[in-house]
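User: Show me sequence and structure for the first protein, then do the same for the second.

Assistant: Starting with the first protein.
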Amino acid sequence: MRIASQANHLAPISGILAGDNVQNTPSASAERSLRTFSAKEHVFFEGDDRDSIYEVVDGVVCVYKVTSDGRRQVISFCYPGSLLGFGHADRYLYSAEVLSPATLRPYSAGALEKIVAERPDLAHSLMSFVMAELAAARDQLLTLGRKSASEKIASFLLELSRQNEEMSKDPETLQLPMTRSDIADYLGLTIETVSRNFTKLKTSGIIDLHQNTTVVICDMDRLEETASCDEERF
């Protein structure tokens, strides 16, 4: 059984607004307002004033929070089609760091939310986004709370595979813009545990690793079995 992707996708907001007849909407300047970010650059930090909502156009963004004891918890990895900062109050509730060179499209938070109130079609599309985000959060809680380390790693790779499918890319060749540390903070593991389980999957012939940045899935059925098993089977 394929694990559901935790990525958040919807039709690009720029596309939804392209035919908007309301004046002074974000669509009027959507193309010229594109912003580029370098790897490791922050889009915003938790607690910053929320003046914009960002659509990921290209690249990958890591969303995370820092706990009271200084530890980092990665909430999600956001791909093209994802929104950053939507549904927050006056301040951002998390930090967003670019993992690979990325292009984002900012929208005025106030202007976009005004259009949402006036446009049922746009409100429906954004509600779909919110529902997908909630479903992803439930999946992530299950992964963190009930799965073993090997199940977590296998589920994560299946998540990336599903992501590739949705973007019309090879589902068996996965590029990893995130580090082992990013993956560990996402899955609630140590870096050593992440590395050890990648090695186990490779030794078992389920995956192959190319310079730690590319994973080739050699046996999809066994990877899916590993993600859903009750105990480690290596």
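Switching to the second protein now.
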Amino acid sequence: MANTADIKNGLCIKWKDGLWQVIEFLHVKPGKGPAFVRTKLKSLDTGKVVDNTFNSGVKIEPVRIETREHQYIYNDDMGYHFMNTETYEQIAVQKHAINAPQFLKDGVNCSIVFHAEEEKVLSCDLPNHIECEITYTEPGLKGDTATNSTKPAIVDNGAEIRVPLFINTGDWVKVDTKARTYSERIKK
């Protein structure tokens, strides 16, 4: 058993008959009254995010988790299928457990978090950045590099992102999967 002093980002806990992961936390010591911990928790069962405040010193029940490297293969009506890169076993992961499913591409290595005792998939994290080819966007005009304007673009896996005006169809870009935004243009 742990208490609120042990709360940190990424910690998984049992709370309100479910498994929750701490996304953000803040220890607060007001001038008057007792200290408390303000948290943002994500349900690992439904993907719902809620705010909660724990009083300082409250007991919490952490859950032991393991992270394993898996490679994305394909998706169908059963879910998104991944293969363990060491044992070659395949597993299906539900869409709500993946942090940015629209950016999955064949062969992308992802970190999958498992509940250690139950061997249950809790979440799937893509790499921080992936490289994508722009398959469609409106043509850019000469001189459009000086502004901060963006335009919609479709990448090779079907996702839509906003890119600067100088990006054209066929260009390769680096996409930030956490923020789901354009990061930079790359040469291929």
